[in-house]
Request: fold
Amino acid sequence: MNAVLQYTVQGLAAGSFYALAALGLAIIFGVLGVVNFAHGAFYMLGAVTAAVLLDTLGLNLWWGLLVVPVLMFFFGVVIERLFVKWLLQLDPLYNFLLTFGLTLLLVDLVKRRYGVSGLPYQRPDVVQGRIELLGVGLPRYQLFVLVFSIVVCLVVWLLMTRTRIGMIVRASTEKPDLARALGINVGRWVTPIFGFGVALAGLAGVLAAPFRAITADMGSNFVIILFAVVVIGGLGSIVGAVVAGYLVGLVEAFGQAYASTFAQILIFVLMAVVVLVRPAGLFGREEAA
Amino acid sequence: MTAPTNTTAESVAAHESSVEEAHAALAGGRPWQRYTLLAVGLVVALALPWFIYPPVAMDIAAMALFAIALDILLGYTGLLSFGHAAFWGTSAYTTGLVAIHFGVPFPLAVLAGAVVAMLLALPIGYLSVRRSGIYFAMVTLAFAQMVYFVGYQWSSLTGGENGLQSVPTNFFGIELIETDSFYFYYAALPIIILGMWIAWRIVHSPFGRVIVAIRDNAPRARALGYDVEKYKVMAFVLSAGLAGLAGGVFAISHGFVALPDLHWTTSGEVVLITVLGGIGTLWGGVVGAFIIVIMSDQLASSGFEGIGIITGTVFVIVVLLFRRGIWGTVRHLWLQRQARRGAKRSSSA
Reply:
């Protein structure tokens, strides 16, 4: 029982990174129709930026969580204006290929600048150590990551459901033509939404910084699992992305605990089953292909 | 403004090499043009190891076939497989294992590799064609990563992170071919050319016309009574088999198989080569492989680390500005010139 609780927390914490990043991926896909291959690279940049800010300016994790998403937002805006926007009218595969090229470029630039060995990251004392809960010592940082990611997802959910911007985003996602016919300028929201999605990937990166090895390659497997996450959740679905993110985290943690050989493979088996049984994904709608 | 919709999007290949152009190219223009091209290609292929370090020449040939295999899917069926490393790598491992444990002549080992790659492609293709467009790319990518992790974990068979060491080159005891990479090139080239010929036959067969029809308008092909999913799976399996031939030759040529052969970066590299050369052209794969392999080799030997900076930049530029790719652009200009000439002739007559 103790072990189950421990793995659950561990899995949900790992799932938090997937959930946040997949949320960004889903929002970008929803509004722009772009599957952003560079999402893993943006996640990596978030972590690297946090490490560099800590090293050079002494900005700790709390500042990182605040500053990095803002920086990543503007980085995303620049990327969208410079590259992505030119291909929006074409087959979405072109932007998939474009962001793949950007990934190669960004990863090797970081590799050249900071080398292949991991950057160090010191987490604040408050989130060091363990908390005693139901007789189980749970790492404080994992609990913090979990709570923080749930809060962020809730805030995004409230933004989506309670504000005018959220309504526009949902309308543009679900019925772009109808939204346009009702006089909503969908195009105006494209750039900030891309920036917002990138910021979420960056935020996941900052959260992962004290938890994972910060290397140029940290996003390269991450992005593939992210794709599995959104396929499981249903690519058009924002709720699906978050739920599938935590689910995949749990599968990973319990897989590592009880069948470590198959931990990574299990995620893709889960994806295969979903594709077989429900091709649109758990929360996706059939026509969203 | 940039208002994106999925409904107006056209298929990758159909958009760029406007449909008539692709059909004109399928018909192949005048026979003498086609045979001249073939002759030039053959001469270059035969002369290559005189000018380029033979193992690098072999890499070019293998990557060219790999890219052509991918082009059958991307250019002619309209499906972007981002998981072809699974078939390339699986065949490489199978070829290596067969060569090590059975000591058969290497073409047999390569054939075994290609067959296993096709067997693997059957379930992956069956599952993946349930989604099209961008989903297909993501699903194939994820399945390929699954194959990668299997290769990583099954280290008793694959050697795990150490890879499969000392794969022998057996060729009926002919020592010159077994030890000298220059002569090996000429022994292995027929396999590559056979693969390319098969690709050419596939594309120019009635089957090839059906997959192009599916690419251009799947609902119409379905309405005409073609089982779209079945054709897609067949194209997927054939493509995987050709990728397997290429991967097997690559494995024998290098004498070892390593995990990166299964990794998605290999899938990405072949997509890069195909798009750079020009999708839906077949020849584009040859041109792309030539450029990328030689560039990688030069950069690596000059000690430059961070090849992704160059390839990534090239790729971004190609996708933004030259979506026809190199071969596609040349073909486009050529066909335009032909059309202008034809128009002039008919107006003066």
